[in-house]
Amino acid sequence: MIDFCQVPHAVARRALFGLAGVLAIGGGRPARAAGLAMPQGKVVLSVSGSIKQSNKDGAAELDMDMLEAIGSASFKTSTPWYDTPVTFSGVPMAKLLDALGASGTTLTVYALNDYKTDIPIEDFRKFPAILATKRDGAYMPVRDKGPLFIVYPYDSDPILKHQVYYSRSAWQVARMVVR
User: Between these two residues, 77 and 25, which has the higher pLDDT value?
Assistant: First the structure.
């Protein structure tokens, strides 16, 4: 069973998008285009390409607080990488792309270990995949697929239990390009 828990962070959203880009109520999209605030912590994700929200040379550099301010979802699912079902929590991919004003058809994801995968952006409208920051309630270290891991709710639909979706599930995500 998928348990999606939306966590409102109105104050953090204002800090993330500035007063001009406060998220619209209910839509999770910026009210109008504006630059992102600069990250205050360590940058864990850089998103570039066809995006409207940026804070450094046309890219969006995000720290963990900025990511978590976008919203949160969680689900429990079995995976080919763990022996028992795991609860993942993180930012819904659709919400992340909406918050950045992404307009494209493909998301190219690059991992810290040089793994690269192309994911159709349509996936994130069809399936509630997340950019997981936590596994079973704890932040994921680099040595265990962290700090960021794109995860689909594999148990929610038999189509997701296929190598196509497993190969799109990049871990140690560091950078994304919207094309």
Answer: 77
